[in-house]
Q: What sequence folds into this?
């Protein structure tokens, strides 16, 4: 099966894709879990439909163009994986397929330009901040901006928080219980640097020493999920070199970043770094998982924090990493807090990395539905564990005129430990 690309430069990914394709029995359980199928109602925009398309394309029974539109529409949310009774590893198919397809799919000049600009700005915090400033100027002349680039300026926030810097080492307060390294992210550093500040504060308060490796870079998730294998591999190798071995864990506080780090063995499959990537990914852990396993040394005091908190499952935390209970447990540890579950919680909010840029209509529809579910919950705060989700929720809640605050789980925890007078 799939022998037609065995001699391709992406040959090492062939076996990975073949296994995923062969595991699918076409039962259709994935359809109800898929946001794009829910939104569009087309078989080819479901995981089952895409698997059939990709299989036929790789076996040269269909032209690449036949799959392009439907593969592009996939959010990569992986909601299909927990819904699949056969255990199809869809993640082993969609990103590798996009990597192989990168040179096969034909895109317009405007699409290529938009993807190039995103790839050259978002993974680099300084460039991203400058690009955001330029985007605000672009809003003033929006009618003159090419249609394909308008989603980029539409997503630029009206205000950005000041840039922040963090010490190379944040010491534990009191007795040191653990020593970890933290990935600070790229977009998160620009859009919400307080998430890292809050994470460091909570970990230190719990007796955890945190190292921020200065040589770290973007996780490579944006490149990997859009099919830019060379860039994804470069980012992966940079982080493999940057993070120390003498720590208890490598922590992430952004679901998308954590998911990307866990897939370094796929990104570097067939290269001399594959074994190193395999060992690395087993040391990666979401910060909520680490703190839950470590145990709260001191529970949060009774504090004037919001009492009704809705929790939104970030797709790459719940589906890709299987992390659902831990963030909820940390929030429930705050005295008096009630964690509210959202309706249709399994459906993606529509952020999904650069999906807002590539598929703005679908992303907007999903974002509005998720915001309406948050409003219907009756919560005063919605918490999540991914910067993309938080940005998407904030934008759509604001458009709907809702006063509900959007916070990272660790911002809620930090505020509970250090209530403002």
A:
């Amino acid at each position: 099966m799939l022998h037609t690309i065995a001699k391709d430069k992406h040959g090492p990914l062939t076996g990975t894709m073949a296994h995923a394709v062969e595991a699918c029995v076409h039962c259709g359980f994935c359809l109800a879990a898929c946001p794009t199928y829910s939104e569009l109602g087309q078989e080819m925009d479901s995981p089952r439909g895409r698997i059939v398309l990709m299989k036929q394309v790789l076996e040269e029974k269909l032209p690449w163009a036949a799959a392009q539109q439907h593969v592009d529409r996939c959010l990569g949310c992986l909601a299909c994986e927990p819904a699949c009774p056969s255990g199809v590893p869809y993640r082993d198919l969609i990103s590798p397929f996009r990597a192989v397809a990168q040179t096969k799919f034909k895109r317009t000049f405007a699409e290529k330009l938009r993807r190039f600009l995103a790839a050259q700005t978002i993974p680099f915090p300084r460039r991203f901040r400058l690009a955001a400033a330029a985007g605000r100027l672009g809003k003033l002349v929006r009618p003159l901006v090419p249609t394909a680039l308008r989603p980029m300026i539409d997503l630029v926030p009206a205000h950005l928080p000041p840039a922040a810097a963090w010490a190379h080492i944040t010491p534990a307060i009191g007795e040191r219980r653990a020593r970890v390294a933290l990935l600070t992210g790229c977009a998160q550093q620009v859009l919400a640097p307080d998430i890292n500040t809050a994470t460091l504060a909570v970990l230190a308060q719990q007796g955890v020493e945190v190292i921020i490796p200065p040589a770290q870079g973007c996780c490579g998730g944006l490149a990997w999920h859009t099919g830019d294998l060379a860039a994804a591999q470069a980012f992966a190798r940079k982080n493999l070199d940057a993070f120390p071995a003498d720590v208890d864990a490598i922590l992430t506080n952004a679901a998308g970043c954590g998911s990307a780090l866990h897939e370094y063995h796929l990104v570097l499959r067939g290269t001399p770094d594959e074994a190193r990537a395999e060992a690395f990914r087993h040391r990666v852990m979401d910060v909520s998982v680490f703190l839950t396993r470590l145990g709260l040394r001191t529970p949060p005091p009774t504090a004037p924090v919001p009492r009704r908190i809705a929790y939104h499952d970030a797709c790459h935390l719940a589906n890709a990493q299987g992390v659902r209970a831990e963030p909820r447990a940390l929030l429930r540890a705050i005295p008096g807090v009630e964690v509210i579950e959202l309706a249709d919680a399994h459906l993606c909010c529509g952020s999904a990395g650069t999906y807002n840029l590539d598929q703005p209509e679908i992303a907007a529809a999903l974002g509005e539905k998720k915001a309406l579910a948050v409003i219907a919950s009756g919560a005063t705060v919605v918490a999540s564990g991914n910067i993309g989700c938080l940005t998407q929720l904030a934008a759509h809640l604001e458009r709907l005129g809702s006063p509900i605050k959007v916070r990272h789980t660790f911002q809620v925890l930090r505020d509970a430990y250090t209530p403002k007078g």
Notes: Residues 360-376 form the longest helix (17 residues).
